[in-house]
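User: Sequence for Fpg/Nei family DNA glycosylase below. Tokens please.
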Amino acid sequence: MPELPEVEALALDLAGRLDGRAIVRVDIAAFSALKTFDPPLSALEGTFVDGVTRHGKFLDISAGGLHLVLHLARAGWVRWRDEVPKLPPRPGGKSGLAARVILDDDSGLDITEAGTKKSLALYVVRSPQDVEGIARLGPDPLSDEFDEAALQRILTEAGRAQVKGVLRHQGTIAGIGNAYSDELLHAAKMSPFKAASSLTPEDVSTLYQAIRTVLGDAVERSRGLAASELKGEKKSNLAVHGRTGQKCPVCGDVVREVSFADSSLQYCATCQTGGKPLADRRMSKLLK
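Assistant: Structure tokens for Fpg/Nei family DNA glycosylase:
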């Protein structure tokens, strides 16, 4: 799933490619992806792109006073094409194409989504705040307003909620998903199951520094990369997420996993839980 660093890099890459370019049209191949009807997609035709920005994990292409907003969800991506096909995409095709943005020189963007669970969302709005998911976003963890005191308030208000869930909740902190929440907690040497309100001031300071450092470093590594390079860059720099069974790069212990209905988390017991493996309730049920 694209998270804050990847969406930030996508915004930077697309800003350079799209600035001042005219949108000829936007073709929809997966009608379920389009979540708005007013303004219509046709309102973007002939408009000039004047910026590409990010709101949490939302990508925002502004053109002609309107905003084409994308949420790539778990399996979405944006691919640049130097030349798009002459024929419009066929709805319901098996290519994974959800939408195509055609520009004034026949180049464009393919917006794709892999897999069968379709969650990618596309909006055409007059203001980004017209998208409910953006309007509900918490503070951006790399913004000036997100300081240590802000994190302390968030954790205190979360009560006994597990700290991993607090980090992932977009209405609490914007832009952190499953992968980077694993990475932040590993960097902070903290259990993902730790209750948010139980963190000491020292814990909060450590977690805050991990958030700023891990995300900040990921943004810097991704800066200037093309969209086609971002997935590989992210994967190659993860310490624990997606590395179940491999060695922790810090202590050499095996990276462990806890599975849930539709996701999983990875952690290092030596670094994060005092050597104690976390209960994997899903696996426990399978073994009974």
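The two ends are 32 Å apart (CA to CA).
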